[in-house]
Design a protein that fits this description.
Helices cover about 80% and strands about 0% of the residues. It is mostly helical. It has a domain at about 45-90. The relative contact order is 0.07. This is Gas vesicle protein. It comes from Algoriphagus antarcticus. Keywords: Membrane, Transmembrane, Transmembrane helix.
Length: about 100
């Protein structure tokens, strides 16, 4: 289980436990509803912060993967271009190979 899911489960469990504790406490209904509302707002705020952090982490990882992919593409094109030029400069022209125009 990922740490994000574990943390979310703990937070939801704590919120449910707090709500049950308030519901079972011997207080007036209006006071109980006020406490439940406050706990719900607090829990939602905490979950929103965790969600925002999760989304920032995902965005950062996505950006890193895209940068790595771009770098790999550039390196591959460069090696292909270098190999093509090496064959061309060494005089190893094989007329049976298709002509290619490699552009970077």
């Amino acid at each position: 289980m990922s740490s994000g899911k574990l943390l979310l489960g703990i937070m939801v469990g704590a919120a449910a436990g707090a709500a049950l504790g308030i519901l079972l406490a011997p207080e007036k209904g209006s006071e109980t509803r006020r406490k439940i509302s406050k706990k719900g707002e607090d829990s939602f705020g905490e979950i929103q912060v965790q969600f925002d952090q999760l989304m920032e982490n995902i965005a950062a990882k996505y950006k890193a993967v895209m940068e790595d992919a771009d770098s790999l593409i550039i390196k591959s094109k460069s090696k292909m271009y270098d190999g093509h030029n090496e064959l061309k400069n060494d005089g190893h022209h094989d007329s049976s190979l298709p002509k290619t125009d490699i552009q970077l």
